[in-house]
Amino acid sequence: MGLSTKYEPKIVTGDAGYVLEDVPHLSDYISNLPTYPNPLQDNPAYSVVKQYFVNVDDTVAQKIVVHKTSPRGIHLRRAGPRQKVYFESDEVHACIVTCGGLCPGLNTVIREIVCGLNYMYGVKRILGIEGGYKGFYARNTIPLTPKVVNDIHKRGGTILGTSRGGHDTSKIVDSIQDRGINQVYIIGGDGTQKGASVIYEEIKRRGLKVAVAGIPKTIDNDIPVIDKSFGFDTAVEEAQRAINAAHVEAESVENGIGVVKLMGRYSGFIAMYATLASRDVDCCLIPESPFYLEGPGGLFEYMEKRLKENGHMIIVMAEGAGQELLSESMHTMDQQDASGNKLLQDVGLWISESIKDHFTKKRKMIINLKYIDPTYMIRAVPGNASDNVYCTLLAHSVVHGAFAGYTGFTVGPVNGRHAYIPFHRVTEKQNKVVITDRMWARLLSSTNQPSFLKPKDITVSKREKEPPTQLLDGENCTDDRKPVSKELVT
Ligand SMILES: Nc1ncnc2c1ncn2[C@@H]1O[C@H](COP(=O)(O)OP(=O)(O)O)[C@@H](O)[C@H]1O
Ligand SMILES: O=P(O)(O)OC[C@H]1O[C@](O)(COP(=O)(O)O)[C@@H](O)[C@@H]1O
Ligand SMILES: [Mg+2]
């Protein structure tokens, strides 16, 4: 897909166990780069701010719950405007690209990068690359100005278009070089950030003064290190409409069952938060928590109990839940999308058929099942108010970082403060719901659903996966397969 790279972390240590995992800087591979005073110091809007510039030494701790004797963990460079910048306004030729699946707030990020570059740093030349990575060499570009992007935050999707696959590193960097682009803003998920990382490596190899900056996008909230991804709140909010509809339908008929399928390929955050927010959900199924249908402790037994008690029930499931059961019963072949992501089977349809089969044929019960699949509806909407503010902060942070000469980084809030994060930290693993954390316990206690775990599994999983005392800072996993323990709210 791309040129192979070997990433070397940039670690700075200090007194009292201080460890900074820094992001690369243009001056790491280009010597004698001139610096300039930050134009923001003459900006009337910002002149009232007492301490506007971030101190060069400011860092953000990734671990905030620590014990007397525990290590302090890794720090990341704090995002924000620097006194000295490495680009002159007239010199900058920026581009923006959006890749991967849609997510509420994409247009807001584009808008705010354009406006941030223009209003804060006086940049006039900004190009939108159409249709994702392949747009660098196979599609048109759109000149972006504050006027062009003025209203786009009110629309879902991305005005630039997006795509999967088509990442050809050499062709992309050739296009960047040929067009004289020197700031590249790349908005996308885990796949996109991997792509951005190889673009950065190739640019460094060619010795170009080009800042490569990522803005993490994932509706599934599966990107680690950052507190949460933009668009997630909007998606959870939008999912309420589908759950409400399912509830109204189910309540109105005899033994009404509502099945709602939400996005969440490998991580069930949307389903978990939508369930917790709704209070109408009786069972939430996510990829991280294997379940089974038949027999004692299984889904069907629980459903029959709920129907007897309540006359109706609602199941919310993430699209990635129960995929192993599905492939067992349907003997399907693994298929992939253009980016190499596994294509999932429709678990909502499968479970709906299995439920109907069990209750009507085997249990001879009358049931009324309605399957609601709002998956694309929850990500095609514009960002809500809080996501829009969040997108603005992300966009400003990334622009400040590129102007300060940082490169090969992505940006996001870490324990409430925006930080610059090396690409490999957000691509080396996935953020997943940890079913031995308190948040999942809250969910189980709110729905009353079975955990589908046998006491033996719980003991083994506690012994194997958890540290002796719970220090939740994403340090309990080392690769893609093991989950990062992260609670959005504690
Ligand atoms: N390992 C990788 N190296 C280079 N490019 C990648 C890699 N993985 C994905 N990409 C590219 O990133 C883009 C988006 O990836 P995809 O997985 O579809 O979405 P997302 O970024 O939202 O996870 C695609 O154009 C894809 O070709
Ligand atoms: O847009 P597609 O190709 O239909 O893919 C749908 C997938 O995209 C997502 O919305 C997000 O995936 P990415 O963020 O990795 O692009 C998943 O929840 C879903 O499985
Ligand atoms: Mg992805």
Automatic annotation (TrEMBL):
The active site is at residue 220. One of its GO terms (cellular component) is cytoplasm. Mg(2+) binds at residue 190. It comes from the Eukaryota. Residues 454-490 are annotated as: Disordered. Its EC number is 2.7.1.11. Its cofactor is Mg(2+). GO terms for molecular function: 6-phosphofructokinase activity; ATP binding; metal ion binding. Keywords: Allosteric enzyme, ATP-binding, Cytoplasm, Glycolysis, Kinase, Magnesium, Metal-binding, Nucleotide-binding, Transferase. Residues 95-400 form the Phosphofructokinase domain. Pathway: Carbohydrate degradation; glycolysis; D-glyceraldehyde 3-phosphate and glycerone phosphate from D-glucose: step 3/4. It is an enzyme of class 2 (transferase). It catalyses: beta-D-fructose 6-phosphate + ATP = beta-D-fructose 1,6-bisphosphate + ADP + H(+). It holds the Pfam family PFK. The keyword Metal-binding applies. InterPro entries: ATP_PFK, PFKA, Phosphofructokinase_dom, PKF_sf, PyroP-dep_PFK_TP0108. Gene3D superfamilies: 3.40.50.450. HAMAP family: Phosphofructokinase_II_X. Catalyzes the phosphorylation of D-fructose 6-phosphate to fructose 1,6-bisphosphate by ATP, the first committing step of glycolysis. Belongs to the phosphofructokinase type A (PFKA) family. PPi-dependent PFK group II subfamily. Atypical ATP-dependent clade 'X' sub-subfamily. Homotetramer. This is ATP-dependent 6-phosphofructokinase. It comes from Nelumbo nucifera (Sacred lotus).
